[in-house]
Structures are given as C-alpha cells and as structure tokens.
Amino acid sequence: ILLLLRNPKDVATSFYHFSNVMSPLPSYETWDDFFVAFMTKKMPWGCYFEYVSEWNKYADHENVMTITYEELKQNPVLGVKNIAAFFGISLAEKELQSVVERSSFQSMKKNSQKTHGAFGNILFRKGHVSDWKNLFSEDQNEKMDKTFEERVGGTKLGTKLKYQVYCKA
User: Fold this and answer.
1) pTM score of the predicted model
2) Three-state DSSP state, 97
3) Which InterPro entries does the record cross-reference, listed alphabetically (predicted)?
4) Could you report the per-residue pLDDT of 96-137, keeping only the tens digit for each?
5) Radius of gyration (Cα) for the chain, nearest Å?
6) Each residue of 61-88: b (16+ CB within 10 Å) or e?
7) Structural domains in the chain plus CATH codes
8) Bridge partner list, 3
C-alpha cells in the first residue's frame, strides 16, 4: 500500500478550491465557512485528522509505504526510486527519468484533458506547497496548529508530515 499524505493546511486549501468547482460537492460562500466545516468534521470524505490517525496504526507495517506530497515535490527522483524499490520494480535510468517527467504536476496538468477529460481542469489547479498562506487568517492558523498537535502531532505520520517546516507561517 502506498500512502500519500499532504500537509493539512494545503489539503484544506486545495479541497476548498476543488469543492467550489465540483458541482456534486458542497460549495462554500467563503473560505471562513469552509474552514469551519473542515475543522468540525463536516467534509464529504470525512475528517483529515481522523484519516491520518487511523492510518498511523499501520505506519510501521512492512506492506505500507508512506510518502508525502512535499517529499515528492522536493526530490521527485528520490521519491520515484523509493516507490519503485518498495514495489520491487527495477527502473533503468531512462525509465526513471521518464516516470519523473511524466508524473510531475506540470506534465500531468498539461496532459489532463487527455488523461481526465473535462475533469482535468478541475483536478489540477496549482500543485504548490504552502499555498495555504494565501487563505489562512492568523486565528485559523493557530486553530489548525493546535488541532494538529492534539490529534497527530507526536505520531509517526504526524512527524512524517514535517508540520514545522511546511505549516508554520
């Protein structure tokens, strides 16, 4: 099992934008309305913190590899090598480079019409790390920090998310 995680502030930011353009999902008048729903477990696919807490139980299992979106953005070559090794796939250098190039956010966004049809424009927005800084108020930032610490801060997956690096203003 490959478990891909992303920091909660960027998850909230991304899901806010996604929700407001994906008609079957609830849309939100404001970011503030969305933030309240996100923090009070009123998301269509459940609570981020409960999801991470539940997966934390399996973090040490040999058949589970956890990687973060931020790790893949920072060093995509190493990320692909680690994923391939986990699944027992041997990649020649040329194959490795092809996977890295084709799985980059820019490449996937560019090809999204071919791979995902009209849904591609909705699915691929920015792909940046720390876009949350454009939406979070100081109060929201503090609430998210507190909730993260209380719910998953000291866990293996909480540590893996490098919250101090990616989620502190």
Assistant:
1) 0.88
2) helix
3) P-loop_NTPase, Sulfotransferase_dom
4) 999 999 998 888 778 778 888 777 776 777 777 888 999 999
5) 17
6) eeeebbbbbbbbeeebeebbeebeeeee
7) 2-165 (3.40.50.300)
8) 66
Other Cβ atoms within 10 Å of 122 Cβ, number: 14
Residue type for 80, please?
A: V
Task: Note the residue count of the chain.
Answer: 169
Residue 169, pLDDT > 80, answer no
Instruction: Work out the average pLDDT over 27-38.
Output: 92
| Location of structure tokens 């008048």 | 29
Distance CA 56, CA 43 (A): 20
Strands (E), 10-107: 65-68
**Beta strands per DSSP E along 13-169:** 65-68
CB distance 81 to 96 below 8 Å = yes
Query: Residue 101, Cβ neighbours under 10 Å: how many?
Result: 11
Distance CA 38, CA 31 (A): 10
Amino acid at 105: F
Q: What is the band of 28 on the pLDDT scale with cuts at 50, 70, 90?
A: confident
| Tokens matching residue 122 | 């909705």
